[in-house]
Specification:
Elements (H helix, E strand, L loop, with lengths): L1 E6 L20 E4 L5 H10 L4 E3 L17 E2 L3 E5 L2 E6 L2 E2 L7 E2 L1 H9 L2 H7 L4 E4 L18 H10 L3 E4 L13 E4 L2 E5 L2 E6 L1
C-alpha cells in the first residue's frame, strides 16, 4: 500500500505544478492538518484514493467549509486495506482557540477510545497533528508535544505515528523519521510517501 502523507504546507509539486497522473499509484491520503480545505479537495479529486484527515490548530475554517470528498477521523478508528488508523487532531493548549488541548484533555480523548480500540483489536497507525513530547516537538508552548501520546504508544504500540505541526524548515535538525519503541514516527510536513 502506498500512502501519501501531507501536513502544514501545500506542496507546489502536488498543487501549483501538478501534472495528471502524478497521484495514480497512491492508495490512501492522510492529512495531519493545517492545510487549506481546497487543497485537500483538489488532492482527492485528482486521485482515486480516499483522504482521511485530522484537524490542525489552524483548521477552524473547516467548521464552515470542510474539505469536500474527504473524511475527518478525529476521535475515530477507521480501517482501510487492513490498516487500522486512529485520528487525534489538535495541538497543545496555548491560546484557548479551537483544536487546542491540555495534556489532561488529550488523555481524556484517548481514554474515550478504549472501546473502539478493544473492538478493533488495537491500532496500526496513529494520525495526529501534534507530535509526542520529546519526539520532534518544539520548546514553545504551541509546538510542545503531548506526553499522552507517549503513554498511548507505550500501551498500544502502533506500528506508525504520523504527525505534522512542526515544520521541517524550522531548523536543519528536524528529522523526518524517528523511532520510539515499536513505533516509527513520521513528520508529514508538506508531503511524504509511506509504503507499507
Amino acid at each position: 500500500m502506498k500512502i501519501l502523507l501531507v501536513a502544514d504546507k501545500e506542496s507546489p509539486y502536488l498543487w501549483d505544478h501538478y501534472q495528471p497522473g502524478r497521484l495514480k499509484d497512491i492508495d490512501l491520503i492522510l492529512s495531519s492538518g493545517d492545510l487549506k480545505a481546497e487543497y485537500l479537495s483538489f488532492l482527492v479529486t485528482m486521485c482515486t484514493a480516499p483522504l482521511f484527515y485530522v484537524h490542525g490548530n489552524h483548521d477552524v475554517s473547516y467548521m464552515k467549509h470542510p474539505p469536500e470528498g474527504c473524511t475527518c477521523i478525529d476521535d475515530k478508528i477507521v480501517t482501510f486495506g487492513g490498516l487500522r488508523i486512529m485520528g487525534m487532531g489538535g495541538c497543545m493548549l496555548y491560546s484557548g482557540k479551537d483544536h487546542q488541548y491540555s495534556d489532561e484533555q488529550m488523555e481524556r480523548r484517548l481514554k474515550k477510545m478504549r472501546f473502539a480500540l478493544h473492538r478493533s483489536k488495537g491500532v496500526d497507525l496513529l494520525l495526529t497533528h501534534a507530535p509526542a513530547q520529546g519526539l520532534g516537538d518544539g520548546q514553545d508552548m504551541c509546538h510542545r508535544g503531548f506526553p499522552a501520546f507517549l503513554r498511548f504508544m507505550d500501551k498500544h504500540q502502533p506500528k506508525y505515528m504520523v504527525h505534522g505541526h512542526v515544520h521541517m524548515n524550522y531548523g536543519v535538525d528536524v528529522p523526518r523519521i524517528r523511532h520510539y519503541g515499536e513505533t516509527t514516527i513520521i513528520n508529514a510536513w508538506e508531503r511524504y510517501i509511506l509504503e507499507i
